[in-house]
């Protein structure tokens, strides 16, 4: 059976791609037959440039599957333990602060993306957990002031009504045009709960 122009173009696309190292990698095991001999047949940028999605084919069984490759960003907790940064954990921690508030899931996802962008912009492969908390405070303050107060009360370990009043006064002054600089004043408790929950 002869191939039409579209099939020839599709076939040529794969034959004309330079044989880069990525396209010849064969170390990924097939999830179906567990064979070690697989090959990359297509690669695409995913997650707004934060990851690469690779379409692979097993040489043994012929089945296809996808893998996602991304750079690891590690969070160093106060006890010295490191774990991968997780947007889902950021969302979970902020979701608790937003409980009972009218905050959409999309807004939480956008906030988690902002937090990741902020901590990745530091250029470091490992970041302290308190930096995650600091990165959460600004966007959360813009999203919902009540949720911000809840999160800040844990993050900054509020001990009294005066701590809340000081934060509320700060919110009022910034709403009326005063400036504000985010600083961690006490132990970063909530940042750890965000990354360990």
UniProtKB/TrEMBL annotation:
<dbReference type="InterPro" id="IPR055173">
    <property type="entry name" value="NrdR-like_N"/>
</dbReference>
<feature type="compositionally biased region" description="Polar residues">
    <location>
        <begin position="183"/>
        <end position="197"/>
    </location>
</feature>
<comment type="function">
    <text>Negatively regulates transcription of bacterial ribonucleotide reductase nrd genes and operons by binding to NrdR-boxes.</text>
</comment>
<keyword id="KW-0804">Transcription</keyword>
<feature type="domain" description="ATP-cone">
    <location>
        <begin position="73"/>
        <end position="163"/>
    </location>
</feature>
<dbReference type="Pfam" id="PF03477">
    <property type="entry name" value="ATP-cone"/>
</dbReference>
<dbReference type="Pfam" id="PF22811">
    <property type="entry name" value="Zn_ribbon_NrdR"/>
</dbReference>
<comment type="similarity">
    <text>Belongs to the NrdR family.</text>
</comment>
<keyword id="KW-0862">Zinc</keyword>
<keyword id="KW-0863">Zinc-finger</keyword>
<keyword id="KW-0479">Metal-binding</keyword>
<feature type="zinc finger region">
    <location>
        <begin position="30"/>
        <end position="61"/>
    </location>
</feature>
<dbReference type="InterPro" id="IPR005144">
    <property type="entry name" value="ATP-cone_dom"/>
</dbReference>
<protein>
    <recommendedName>
        <fullName>Transcriptional repressor NrdR</fullName>
    </recommendedName>
</protein>
<keyword id="KW-0067">ATP-binding</keyword>
<keyword id="KW-0238">DNA-binding</keyword>
<keyword id="KW-0678">Repressor</keyword>
<dbReference type="InterPro" id="IPR003796">
    <property type="entry name" value="RNR_NrdR-like"/>
</dbReference>
<feature type="region of interest" description="Disordered">
    <location>
        <begin position="172"/>
        <end position="197"/>
    </location>
</feature>
<keyword id="KW-0547">Nucleotide-binding</keyword>
<keyword id="KW-0805">Transcription regulation</keyword>
């Amino acid at each position: 059976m002869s191939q039409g122009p579209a099939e020839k173009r599709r076939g040529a696309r794969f034959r004309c791609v330079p044989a880069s190292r990525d396209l010849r990698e064969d170390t990924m095991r097939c999830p179906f037959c567990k064979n070690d001999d697989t090959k990359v047949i297509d690669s695409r940028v995913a997650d707004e440039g934060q990851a690469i999605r690779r379409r692979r084919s097993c040489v043994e069984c012929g089945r296809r599957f996808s893998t996602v490759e991304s750079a690891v960003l590690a969070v160093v907790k106060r006890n010295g333990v490191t774990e991968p940064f997780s947007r889902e954990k950021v969302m979970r921690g902020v979701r608790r602060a937003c409980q009972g508030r009218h905050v959409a899931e999309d807004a939480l996802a956008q906030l988690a993306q902002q937090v990741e962008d902020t901590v990745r912009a530091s250029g470091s492969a490992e970041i302290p957990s308190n930096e995650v908390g600091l990165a959460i405070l600004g966007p959360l303050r813009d999203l919902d002031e009540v949720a911000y107060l809840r999160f800040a009360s844990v993050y900054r370990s509020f001990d009294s009504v005066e701590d809340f009043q000081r934060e509320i006064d700060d919110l009022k002054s910034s709403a009326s045009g005063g400036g504000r600089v985010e600083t961690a004043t006490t132990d970063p408790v909530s940042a750890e709960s965000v990354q360990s929950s």
